[in-house]
Amino acid sequence: MQFSSFKLDDRLQRAVQAAGFTQTTPVQEAAIPPALEGRDLVGTAQTGTGKTAAFVLPMLQSLLTTPGKRGRTRALIVTPTRELAEQVHAAVRQLARYTKLRSATVYGGVGMAPQERALRGGAEIIVACPGRLLDHVRRGNANLRNVETLVLDEADRMLDMGFLPSVKQIVRETPSERHTMLFSATFASELGRLASQILQDPERIEIGLAAPADTVAHTLCPVAHEQKTALLLQLLEQTDTASVLIFTRTKHRANRVAAQIERSGYRTAVLHSNKSQSQRQKALDGFRSGRFQLLVATDIAARGLDVRTISHVINYDIPDCADAYIHRIGRTGRCERTGDALTLVTADDHAVVRDIERALGEPISVRKVEGFDYGAPRLTTASGSRGGRNRATPASYSPRSGALARGGRGPMKKSSSRRSASSHRSR
To answer: Is 106 inside any structural domain?
Structure first.
């Protein structure tokens, strides 16, 4: 479907054209028509499918065509993380560029004063994280009684992060008569109960459930626990790319791995929840611009991070479930580009690998990295039994051969000046 087929305000059509949007994605084609009619929506779609425009365009259309008091908060988008809030806000600004609608972000980790000025100054659209938004409500800075459109984005992630009570409180602060859209990558029973409480006769849309992009190639790299970092460095030596996202399970490990990588000469940044908002923004901006070749992150970066140049996602630690894996590897292979997802696995990871393969619908190839001295203990595999350190790679797997990169921009170059690891850990 062409965007021009939607009956959008001329100013929005102009912004859509300026953004280079022509044909809709499946979630946009399914969600925009009922949303334009004012129907409540429950949309299940992964990140990277174009769902932001699917709710932003109907929201803007409603604000432009429905009379409302200027200087009041009329639309509210709630997101789980600061990074996603900024990304959604960027989309709002892009699509509202030819209108006079004003927008602002509200989240923790930064000063409250600029946000208070934006709230009191009459921003019609607020993109917020739950905790900080409620802080402003309690202080009397934010008034949600005029909200006409409420969007809950990445709702499952908000529940995972313990925001359910805050989300319910925010909903109570808004009028009962409103247009509500809820988007989520998964739809657990708890989320279903929330949807039944806050939406009225919603249109149900399901796009690409539990299916990663087919532009991503998957590989398992079995290794002993104590050899993970050495194998990671070997992989980086062989990777023809300049934009790699590395996931670890904990914040401490992200710091440690980043420091070890940087000592080997790579320009590296770290992203996790212990970083201040300014540090997180510097890391993201530097990674997007190419100033940092590698970004080592916890699952805070698994959703909402849109860096289209990422060609490799490396799971230093395997995620704890198939759903988390799909979100992590969704950071690459975006916008029809190809990408690679490599996961370092030990014998203890067998159960999670099995779940991931079930979600993918096929076995994942296993690769023994050429030139790496596995030494003792011998190579472990995801299909080995617990403690099976002496098992060989199982014959049922077909290791992928050849270089990691799928074409590309030449070998990764190490940093010419080795700055101290501590300097980048502070970013």
So the answer is: yes
Closest CA to 171 of 190, 152, 184, 185: 152
Q: Which of 249, 381, 392 is nearest to 328 (CA)?
A: 249
Number of H helices, E strands in the chain: 15, 14
Checking phi first, is residue 413 left (phi over 0); if not, alpha (psi -120 to 50) or beta? Answer: beta
Instruction: Classify burial at 67, counting beta carbons within 10 Å of its beta carbon; exposed 0-12, middle 13-18, buried 19 or more.
Output: exposed
Residue 153 and residue 51 share a domain: yes
- The span from the CA of 381 to the CA of 366, in Å, is 9
The whole-model pTM stands at 0.61
Is the domain of 234 the same as that of 195? no
Q: Could you tell me if 60 and 12 are in contact, meaning their C-beta atoms sit under 8 angstroms apart?
A: yes
Residue 230 Cα distances to 16, 234, 258, 368, angstroms: 47, 6, 13, 14
CATH number of the domain where residue 105 is located: 3.40.50.300
Q: What is the pLDDT of residue 419?
A: 34
Q: What is the CA radius of gyration of the chain?
A: 23
**Domain of 128?**
3-206
Question: What's the burial of 239, exposed, middle or buried (CB within 10 Å: 0-12/13-18/19+)?
Answer: buried
Spatial separation of the C-alpha atoms in residues 349 and 365, rounded to whole Å: 15
CB 322 within 8 A of CB 210: yes
Same domain as 67, residue 182 = yes
Looking at the structure, tell me whether residues 82 and 12 fall in a common domain. Answer: yes
Q: How many CB atoms lie within 10 A of CB 211?
A: 12
Interval 60-90: pLDDT, tens: 999 999 877 777 899 999 999 888 999 999 9
Contact between residue 399 and residue 245 where contact means Cβ atoms under 8 Å apart? no
Question: How many structural domains compose the chain?
Answer: 2
Instruction: Single out the residue in 157, 182, 206 at which a domain terminates.
Output: 206
Before 377, cis peptide (omega within 30)?
yes
403 CB contacts (<8 Å, ≥6 apart)?
Answer: 238, 239, 240
d(CA 427, CA 418): 16
The answer to whether position 59 is within a domain reads yes
pLDDT digits 0-9 by tens, 3-36? 888 989 999 999 999 988 888 988 999 999 999 9
